[in-house]
Hints:
The protein is an alpha+beta fold. It has helices at about 10-20, 25-75, and strands spanning about 85, 105-110, 115-130, 130-140.
Amino acid sequence: MIQPPNSNIGTLERIIKSQTGFTLIEMLIAISILSFGLLGLAELQIIAIKSNKESRDLTSAVILAETKVEELLITGVTNISNGTFHDTNNPVNETGAPGGIFTRSWTIADYTGSTHIKKITATIEWPSMKGVRSISLDTLLSDVVDKAY
Length: 149
């Protein structure tokens, strides 16, 4: 074949033959692997969000129980009576105001037959993805004061 003197046909053939790159199959495989990796990361993110909510609810429940126990400790042994009581605002939110997911109750009883020591048990229940969860906080309240003899 005779080529004109200023022809670029040979150069064009060399450029086409020397081009390298990824084939369509290689790109599809790479995208598939990347997609599976991203799906795994998305699942881990969902698990982390759920765990954070469970932790936040547990912390709120402990604070609600501690708050009730502190209220009763301030009241004093002589001003509280034995029995089981339920918060009038149930269900309560994290601050104890009406309208949340937590149910707060407490039990007051004489401790080992003593009228000077009360056992207070504050219980908080709430729904979670694992069913109904609850925590209980026990404390003792005494009106006995050290006396110098």
